[in-house]
Amino acid sequence: MVKRIDKDASRFRQIIRGKVKKNLKKYVTRGELIGKKGKDLVSIPIDQINVPRFRFSSRKSGGVGQGGGDIGTPIGSGSGQDGAGEAGDAPGRHILEVDISLDELAQMLGEELELPNIEPKGKKNIHSDKDRYTGISDTGPESLRHFKRTYKQALRRQIISQSYNPDNPAIVPIREDRRYRTWKTVVQPESNAVIIYMMDVSGSMGDEQKEIVRTQSFWIDTWLHYQYENIETRYVIHDAVAREVDKETFYHTRESGGTIISSAYKVAARIMEQDYNPAEWNIYLFHFSDGDNWGEIDTDECVALLTKTLLPRINLFCYGQVESPYGSGLFIRDLEEYLPDEEKLVLSEIPDKEGIYQSIKDFLGKGK
To answer: Which of 110, 179, 300, 344 is the most exposed place for a label (fewest CB within 10 A)?
Structure first.
């Protein structure tokens, strides 16, 4: 039997979920959630939740709470017009911060953007068996005896048989009172995934462009962690040369040199060759740039690396072009021209933070 307080708590969670979904686009386009992220939770500010208040009853009966005032007047509300008069000491309207699990956040993201679940490759044919406790039985091994259920059953039996003595509340279970946990073996496919982020850190990529990349990467990570049990993340930065770095360096490095995009693709190819067998790993490459590249010669080399080395081995290659006042923006046009029918290649233009929402849908909407 579900207790009323559990129903109320569940209803409150549904209200919170509805509020979050309603404002999801706002949360996606802002970076505030990144700073509030815990291990498995993220704090989200929620406002405009109406809290129930007592009102005077229409009945003329006496008792506690009866006094001056009209029927229907809220208890505890102040007098006068809102915002008028002198400063007071009463609390104002507060914003409630609630904790939402990252899995729940990913579910809402998938529902709002209509993202299909990913069908993993690699170890999808390798299965592991996991036992999950799913119910209660009156038979089973003593090691799985459910002591609380056994106690409640014995108490119930003694009350019904009128053998329970409140002055001497001794509960002695008999064999028929014993309850045991039951389990079911669940077969789960094993799937491994790796995300390799690449970003242009040349002089034309400013702080605003990097914040867009950081925000979008948070939501990509949230979705892919929801889809895969085991996931690893690698980071590559480049200007005229590329190197692998840690996460902190990835988001906070800025160079002053030119841009040779193929250098990043070569580092990504080396990482895959050394550590990630495409037969066992689901591989995702995300590259962010403002579209500048060092001439047509390097663009030709990028296309060759994509077609011959990268795309045949991965699930998805996503290129996000972040608009910058200093970037030419030509690279995305070159990819459209040279690789018009490549299913594993997804191109997305991100003009500003408002464009993050659509870009996520562009990247993850194929379910690969």
So the answer is: 300
